[in-house]
Amino acid sequence: MRDKSPATRDYPLAQGMHRRIAIGIAYNGANWHGWQRQRSPEVLTVQGELERALSQIAAHPVRSYCAGRTDARVHAPGQVAHFDVAVERDSKAWIDGVNSVLPKSIRVQWAKQVDSSFHARYSATARRYEYWIHNAAVASALFDRLLTHVPRTLDVALMQAEAQCLLGELDFTSFRATACDSRTAMRNVHHLRVTRDGERICVDIQANAFLLHMVRNIVGSLLEVGSGRQPAGWLAGLLEARDRRLAAATASPAGLYLCNVRYPKQYGLPLAGYSPFAGAQAESG
User: Which residues are the active-site residues?
Assistant: First the structure.
């Protein structure tokens, strides 16, 4: 039987293409309708803008594939994508050239040629997100659309303790969106940490992959416990119930950041991305 591990699969180049390029991308999602290209050209997306810029530099149409299709208004310091091209360009062209025609809220950070065993989505071994909350009585004008404002006092120690029941390979049916089309709700959460830095609270979560709205649904339920609206042990009960209707409302996309994506070492890709408010390079546990 053929080994189906990500490192040994092959994803053939698109017809007529000769090279595959992996790129790291950062974007402020506040003004974008998410990553995924839409049918209507009037709906502005990160993928749509990126492919327009890549096609201009490649001098032919380019289609891109990303590690995680972020929703409208979600940010990404560490998104990764790949695309196939028929031309030879150095990394400077894929970074400086593409950035010169991209909107300022989208930047290519690095570029590297890879072989056909690499796929931005299917070769990834882990994704890390951070969800940032501004926990203060008055909302900050500076953090508008960058953090989610929660005025009620939150018990971070309780949120951290409650979150630990979500570690490991589990069924996250209670935390997936009703529109999620994944064949299984099983996901492996590597770490989940809730910390406070003054008025800012960070929910830091890494998993092998995520279901649609999974992070925002987990945060929404953690907020219910942290504010005292639900008792200790509620999250464990939600997980066991496997019923999305019992969980809290989905948290706002404004505070969500795709910080980085991990791949097998054979590809030699940088672990690009960063923690947007802690000021440190994002590292996985």
Answer: 71
